[in-house]
Protein backbone atom coordinates (compact mmCIF):
# COMPACT_ATOMS: atom_id res chain seq x y z
CA UNK A 1 0.00 0.00 0.00
CA UNK A 2 1.51 3.35 -1.07
CA UNK A 3 0.75 6.32 1.09
CA UNK A 4 -0.26 9.53 -0.67
CA UNK A 5 0.37 12.85 1.02
CA UNK A 6 -1.63 14.86 -1.48
CA UNK A 7 -1.69 18.06 0.57
CA UNK A 8 1.78 17.89 2.12
CA UNK A 9 4.07 20.13 0.06
CA UNK A 10 7.73 20.95 0.47
CA UNK A 11 8.58 18.00 2.76
CA UNK A 12 10.07 15.36 0.43
CA UNK A 13 12.27 13.72 3.07
CA UNK A 14 9.44 13.24 5.57
CA UNK A 15 7.11 11.92 2.87
CA UNK A 16 9.77 9.51 1.63
CA UNK A 17 10.56 8.13 5.09
CA UNK A 18 6.91 7.58 5.98
CA UNK A 19 6.08 6.07 2.59
CA UNK A 20 8.98 3.64 2.87
CA UNK A 21 7.88 2.58 6.34
CA UNK A 22 4.43 1.66 5.03
CA UNK A 23 5.59 0.12 1.75
CA UNK A 24 8.08 -2.13 3.59
CA UNK A 25 5.72 -2.75 6.52
CA UNK A 26 8.36 -1.59 8.98
CA UNK A 27 6.34 0.55 11.34
CA UNK A 28 8.20 1.78 14.41
CA UNK A 29 6.52 1.75 17.83
CA UNK A 30 7.18 5.48 18.22
CA UNK A 31 7.88 8.45 15.95
CA UNK A 32 8.95 12.04 16.53
CA UNK A 33 7.67 14.48 13.91
CA UNK A 34 9.89 17.50 14.58
CA UNK A 35 10.23 20.92 12.95
CA UNK A 36 8.83 24.47 13.06
CA UNK A 37 5.09 24.99 13.46
CA UNK A 38 2.79 25.31 10.50
CA UNK A 39 4.80 23.34 7.92
CA UNK A 40 2.82 20.10 7.66
CA UNK A 41 3.65 17.97 10.73
CA UNK A 42 0.06 17.59 11.93
CA UNK A 43 -1.28 17.04 8.43
CA UNK A 44 1.35 14.36 7.80
CA UNK A 45 0.51 12.70 11.11
CA UNK A 46 -3.15 12.54 10.15
CA UNK A 47 -2.34 10.95 6.80
CA UNK A 48 0.01 8.50 8.49
CA UNK A 49 -2.44 7.33 11.16
CA UNK A 50 -5.17 7.11 8.55
CA UNK A 51 -3.16 4.54 6.63
CA UNK A 52 -1.93 2.73 9.73
CA UNK A 53 -5.51 2.29 10.88
CA UNK A 54 -6.71 0.97 7.52
CA UNK A 55 -7.22 -2.68 6.67
CA UNK A 56 -8.25 -2.05 3.06
CA UNK A 57 -6.39 -0.11 0.38
CA UNK A 58 -9.41 1.30 -1.49
CA UNK A 59 -10.35 4.97 -2.00
CA UNK A 60 -13.79 4.36 -0.51
CA UNK A 61 -12.43 2.76 2.65
CA UNK A 62 -9.78 5.45 3.11
CA UNK A 63 -12.38 8.19 2.63
CA UNK A 64 -14.55 6.66 5.36
CA UNK A 65 -11.52 6.29 7.59
CA UNK A 66 -10.54 9.93 7.12
CA UNK A 67 -14.05 11.15 7.90
CA UNK A 68 -14.22 9.13 11.12
CA UNK A 69 -10.85 10.40 12.27
CA UNK A 70 -11.77 13.99 11.51
CA UNK A 71 -14.91 13.52 13.59
CA UNK A 72 -12.84 12.03 16.42
CA UNK A 73 -14.87 8.84 16.70
CA UNK A 74 -12.38 6.16 15.68
CA UNK A 75 -11.95 3.72 18.61
CA UNK A 76 -8.28 3.01 17.90
CA UNK A 77 -7.02 6.61 17.64
CA UNK A 78 -6.30 8.93 20.57
CA UNK A 79 -5.27 12.48 19.63
CA UNK A 80 -3.82 14.37 22.60
CA UNK A 81 -3.47 18.16 22.68
CA UNK A 82 -2.07 20.61 25.27
CA UNK A 83 -4.66 21.74 27.80
CA UNK A 84 -5.41 24.42 30.37
CA UNK A 85 -6.63 23.59 33.86
CA UNK A 86 -9.84 25.43 34.66
CA UNK A 87 -12.18 24.71 37.57
CA UNK A 88 -11.02 21.13 37.81
CA UNK A 89 -11.33 20.47 34.09
CA UNK A 90 -8.78 20.12 31.30
CA UNK A 91 -9.64 22.35 28.34
CA UNK A 92 -7.97 22.32 24.94
CA UNK A 93 -6.86 25.61 23.43
CA UNK A 94 -9.98 25.66 21.24
CA UNK A 95 -12.27 24.90 24.19
CA UNK A 96 -10.64 27.53 26.38
CA UNK A 97 -11.03 30.15 23.68
CA UNK A 98 -14.68 29.23 23.09
CA UNK A 99 -15.45 29.51 26.81
CA UNK A 100 -13.58 32.77 27.21
CA UNK A 101 -11.10 31.38 29.73
CA UNK A 102 -8.29 33.81 30.52
CA UNK A 103 -4.98 32.19 29.69
CA UNK A 104 -2.17 33.41 31.91
CA UNK A 105 0.16 30.45 31.36
CA UNK A 106 0.79 28.35 28.25
CA UNK A 107 -1.12 25.07 27.82
CA UNK A 108 0.58 21.81 28.77
CA UNK A 109 0.42 18.09 28.11
CA UNK A 110 -0.42 16.92 31.64
CA UNK A 111 0.11 13.78 33.67
CA UNK A 112 -3.64 13.07 33.56
CA UNK A 113 -3.46 12.92 29.76
CA UNK A 114 -0.49 10.55 29.82
CA UNK A 115 -2.44 8.30 32.19
CA UNK A 116 -5.27 8.37 29.65
CA UNK A 117 -2.78 7.23 26.99
CA UNK A 118 -1.68 4.35 29.21
CA UNK A 119 -5.28 3.27 29.79
CA UNK A 120 -6.05 3.59 26.07
CA UNK A 121 -3.12 1.32 25.19
CA UNK A 122 -3.95 -1.25 27.88
CA UNK A 123 -6.63 -2.76 25.64
CA UNK A 124 -6.13 -4.31 22.19
CA UNK A 125 -7.25 -2.36 19.09
CA UNK A 126 -10.89 -2.92 18.13
CA UNK A 127 -10.92 -2.32 14.37
CA UNK A 128 -7.36 -1.53 13.24
CA UNK A 129 -4.13 -3.51 13.10
CA UNK A 130 -2.73 -1.37 15.92
CA UNK A 131 -3.70 1.32 18.43
CA UNK A 132 -2.59 4.83 17.47
CA UNK A 133 -1.72 7.79 19.68
CA UNK A 134 -0.75 11.25 18.41
CA UNK A 135 0.61 13.77 20.92
CA UNK A 136 0.34 17.26 19.47
CA UNK A 137 2.88 19.81 20.78
CA UNK A 138 4.70 17.17 22.80
CA UNK A 139 7.33 19.82 23.56
CA UNK A 140 4.74 21.42 25.90
CA UNK A 141 4.79 18.38 28.16
CA UNK A 142 5.00 18.83 31.92
CA UNK A 143 7.87 17.03 33.68
CA UNK A 144 5.65 14.47 35.37
CA UNK A 145 3.87 13.75 32.12
CA UNK A 146 7.19 13.29 30.31
CA UNK A 147 8.37 10.72 32.87
CA UNK A 148 5.05 8.90 32.56
CA UNK A 149 5.27 8.85 28.77
CA UNK A 150 8.76 7.41 28.96
CA UNK A 151 7.40 4.37 30.78
CA UNK A 152 4.74 3.95 28.10
CA UNK A 153 7.32 4.17 25.31
CA UNK A 154 9.33 1.38 26.92
CA UNK A 155 6.39 -1.04 26.49
CA UNK A 156 3.96 0.40 23.90
CA UNK A 157 2.38 -2.97 23.15
CA UNK A 158 0.41 -3.29 19.92
CA UNK A 159 0.56 0.42 19.17
CA UNK A 160 2.33 3.28 17.42
CA UNK A 161 2.83 6.60 19.18
CA UNK A 162 3.55 9.81 17.26
CA UNK A 163 4.97 12.79 19.16
CA UNK A 164 4.65 16.08 17.27
CA UNK A 165 7.03 18.80 18.42
CA UNK A 166 8.54 22.05 17.20
CA UNK A 167 11.88 21.29 18.88
CA UNK A 168 13.70 18.39 20.49
CA UNK A 169 15.24 20.64 23.14
CA UNK A 170 12.15 20.65 25.37
CA UNK A 171 11.82 16.84 25.30
CA UNK A 172 13.61 14.37 27.53
CA UNK A 173 16.61 12.92 25.64
CA UNK A 174 15.41 9.45 26.63
CA UNK A 175 12.08 10.11 24.90
CA UNK A 176 13.83 11.35 21.74
CA UNK A 177 16.09 8.28 21.71
CA UNK A 178 13.08 5.93 21.72
CA UNK A 179 11.46 7.56 18.70
CA UNK A 180 12.16 7.31 15.00
CA UNK A 181 12.85 10.90 13.98
CA UNK A 182 10.97 12.37 11.00
CA UNK A 183 12.34 15.86 10.25
CA UNK A 184 10.30 18.71 8.77
CA UNK A 185 11.80 21.91 7.38
CA UNK A 186 10.70 25.44 6.57
CA UNK A 187 9.56 25.92 2.97
CA UNK A 188 11.36 27.97 0.35
CA UNK A 189 9.67 31.30 -0.54
CA UNK A 190 8.51 29.80 -3.84
CA UNK A 191 6.97 26.72 -2.22
CA UNK A 192 5.41 28.82 0.53
CA UNK A 193 3.70 31.00 -2.07
CA UNK A 194 2.55 27.91 -3.98
CA UNK A 195 1.01 26.37 -0.85
CA UNK A 196 -0.79 29.58 0.10
CA UNK A 197 -2.20 30.04 -3.41
CA UNK A 198 -3.39 26.43 -3.49
CA UNK A 199 -5.34 27.04 -0.28
CA UNK A 200 -6.94 30.28 -1.44
CA UNK A 201 -4.66 32.72 0.37
CA UNK A 202 -3.45 34.76 -2.60
CA UNK A 203 -3.73 37.97 -0.55
CA UNK A 204 -1.03 36.77 1.83
CA UNK A 205 1.42 36.23 -1.03
CA UNK A 206 1.02 39.93 -1.90
CA UNK A 207 1.78 40.99 1.69
CA UNK A 208 5.61 41.05 2.00
CA UNK A 209 5.70 41.70 5.77
CA UNK A 210 3.52 38.69 6.54
CA UNK A 211 5.48 36.49 4.12
CA UNK A 212 8.75 37.50 5.78
CA UNK A 213 7.28 37.02 9.25
CA UNK A 214 6.18 33.48 8.33
CA UNK A 215 9.78 32.37 7.63
CA UNK A 216 8.73 29.53 5.36
CA UNK A 217 5.72 28.34 7.39
CA UNK A 218 2.28 28.37 5.71
CA UNK A 219 0.59 27.94 9.09
CA UNK A 220 2.41 30.90 10.56
CA UNK A 221 1.65 32.97 7.47
CA UNK A 222 -2.07 32.25 7.76
CA UNK A 223 -2.08 32.90 11.52
CA UNK A 224 -0.18 36.18 11.05
CA UNK A 225 -2.57 37.33 8.34
CA UNK A 226 -5.57 36.55 10.53
CA UNK A 227 -3.97 38.47 13.41
CA UNK A 228 -3.39 41.38 11.05
CA UNK A 229 -7.02 41.38 9.92
CA UNK A 230 -8.17 41.43 13.56
CA UNK A 231 -6.02 44.48 14.35
CA UNK A 232 -7.93 47.79 13.93
CA UNK A 233 -6.67 49.37 10.68
CA UNK A 234 -6.43 52.86 12.16
CA UNK A 235 -4.30 51.58 15.05
CA UNK A 236 -2.00 49.71 12.69
CA UNK A 237 -1.69 52.76 10.46
CA UNK A 238 -0.72 54.93 13.43
CA UNK A 239 1.98 52.47 14.48
CA UNK A 240 3.40 52.21 10.98
CA UNK A 241 3.44 56.01 10.64
CA UNK A 242 4.02 57.30 14.14
CA UNK A 243 2.51 60.67 15.07
CA UNK A 244 5.13 63.43 15.33
CA UNK A 245 4.43 64.85 18.79
CA UNK A 246 5.05 63.23 22.19
CA UNK A 247 1.47 63.99 23.28
CA UNK A 248 0.05 62.09 20.31
CA UNK A 249 2.37 59.17 20.95
CA UNK A 250 1.33 58.98 24.60
CA UNK A 251 -2.31 58.91 23.52
CA UNK A 252 -1.51 56.09 21.12
CA UNK A 253 0.32 54.21 23.90
CA UNK A 254 -2.81 54.39 26.02
CA UNK A 255 -4.97 53.04 23.19
CA UNK A 256 -2.93 49.91 22.46
CA UNK A 257 -3.50 47.97 25.74
CA UNK A 258 -7.10 49.15 25.79
CA UNK A 259 -7.63 47.58 22.37
CA UNK A 260 -5.40 44.49 22.34
CA UNK A 261 -4.67 41.75 24.88
CA UNK A 262 -1.06 40.98 25.82
CA UNK A 263 -0.52 38.01 23.43
CA UNK A 264 -1.75 40.17 20.54
CA UNK A 265 0.53 43.02 21.62
CA UNK A 266 3.49 40.63 21.57
CA UNK A 267 2.55 39.48 18.08
CA UNK A 268 2.17 43.09 16.99
CA UNK A 269 5.68 43.92 18.18
CA UNK A 270 7.09 41.13 16.01
CA UNK A 271 5.08 42.38 13.06
CA UNK A 272 6.26 45.96 13.54
CA UNK A 273 9.88 44.84 13.81
CA UNK A 274 9.60 43.09 10.47
CA UNK A 275 7.70 46.03 8.91
CA UNK A 276 10.22 48.64 10.00
CA UNK A 277 13.19 46.54 8.96
CA UNK A 278 11.75 45.94 5.49
CA UNK A 279 10.78 49.56 4.97
CA UNK A 280 13.40 51.56 6.89
CA UNK A 281 16.17 49.25 8.20
CA UNK A 282 16.60 51.54 11.17
CA UNK A 283 17.84 50.47 14.61
CA UNK A 284 16.06 53.52 16.04
CA UNK A 285 12.81 51.57 15.83
CA UNK A 286 14.00 47.98 16.20
CA UNK A 287 15.81 48.34 19.53
CA UNK A 288 12.90 49.93 21.44
CA UNK A 289 10.54 47.28 20.09
CA UNK A 290 12.85 44.49 21.23
CA UNK A 291 12.96 46.02 24.72
CA UNK A 292 9.16 46.29 24.67
CA UNK A 293 8.82 42.58 23.94
CA UNK A 294 11.06 41.66 26.88
CA UNK A 295 9.18 44.04 29.18
CA UNK A 296 5.76 42.61 28.30
CA UNK A 297 7.06 39.09 28.85
CA UNK A 298 8.26 40.26 32.28
CA UNK A 299 4.72 41.47 33.10
CA UNK A 300 5.58 45.18 33.11
CA UNK A 301 2.45 47.35 32.92
CA UNK A 302 1.59 47.45 29.15
CA UNK A 303 0.67 51.13 28.99
CA UNK A 304 4.02 52.09 30.52
CA UNK A 305 5.82 49.77 28.10
CA UNK A 306 4.21 51.40 25.08
CA UNK A 307 4.75 54.93 26.39
CA UNK A 308 8.49 54.34 26.77
CA UNK A 309 8.66 52.48 23.45
CA UNK A 310 6.85 55.01 21.29
CA UNK A 311 8.74 57.95 22.75
CA UNK A 312 12.04 56.15 22.15
CA UNK A 313 11.30 55.21 18.56
CA UNK A 314 12.88 57.48 15.97
CA UNK A 315 10.59 59.85 14.11
CA UNK A 316 12.43 59.68 10.82
CA UNK A 317 10.75 56.52 9.46
UniProtKB/TrEMBL annotation:
Residue spans crossing the bilayer: none
Gene3D superfamilies reported in the protein's UniProt record: P-loop containing nucleotide triphosphate hydrolases
InterPro entries, sorted: DNA_Rep/Repair_Clamp_Loader (IPR050238), P-loop_NTPase (IPR027417)
Protein origin, superkingdom: Bacteria
GO biological process: DNA-templated DNA replication
Alphabetical list of PANTHER family matching this protein: DNA POLYMERASE III SUBUNIT DELTA, REPLICATION FACTOR C / DNA POLYMERASE III GAMMA-TAU SUBUNIT
Full protein name: DNA polymerase III subunit delta
Organism the protein comes from: Roseofilum reptotaenium AO1-A
Record lineage: Bacteria, Bacillati, Cyanobacteriota, Cyanophyceae, Desertifilales
